[in-house]
Amino acid sequence: MNEFTAVNQDLDLTIDQAVKHIAEFCHDQGLESSSETTLSLLVEELISNSFKYGAAAPGSAIGLELRLEAGLLVLRYRDAGIPFDPHHDLSEDDREMSLEDRRVGGLGWPLIFDLCERVDYVRDREQNVTTLHLAPK
């Protein structure tokens, strides 16, 4: 397992650090650049959501674990934000509506679900734990 932890202080810095961690993991595992790009996109979305909507206290940590398991990339993400289960707490998917009728934003989680084979969520010790399973590319 490959782990990364960052303190909730600066969005851009945290994303940059996480993306560097992903690059190292993919290099060490011999994964294609497309897997690195997909993992980076997913993590950027998760971190952005934590900072923008999660209401985690400044100084709280986010955690990222990466591993290969049964032929899948597994990304486990933790944050100390408000409880958020993506299977139950999302707004209605409005991607089929006309642009005029759509709300601004709301594309991140549908993209995550589209890119992953499976998305799991649990609330554990006052943390959101989201686990993404995706096929290496």
Verbal overview:
The chain has 137 residues and is α+β, with helices and mostly antiparallel strands. It has a single domain (2-134), classed as Heat Shock Protein 90. The protein has helices spanning 11-29, 33-53, 108-115; strands at residues 2-7, 61-69, 72-79, 118-124, 127-134. It has a 5-stranded antiparallel sheet. Strand 4 (118-124) and strand 5 (127-134) form a beta hairpin. The model has no long low-confidence stretch (mean pLDDT 87).
CATH superfamily: Histidine kinase-like ATPase, C-terminal domain
Percent helix range = 25-40%
How many helices in DSSP terms?
3
What is the CATH architecture term? 2-Layer Sandwich
Category from helices, strands and their pairing:
alpha+beta
What does the radius of gyration come to? 15 Å
- Can you tell me the CATH class? Alpha Beta
CATH topology: Heat Shock Protein 90
- As laid out across the biggest beta sheet, the strand order is 1-2-3-5-4
How many discrete structural domains? Answer: 1
Secondary-structure element pattern, one letter each = EHHEEHEE
Count all strands and give the number: 5
What amount of the residues lies in strands? 25-35%
Apparent shape:
globular
How would a textbook summarize the main sheet? 5 strands, antiparallel
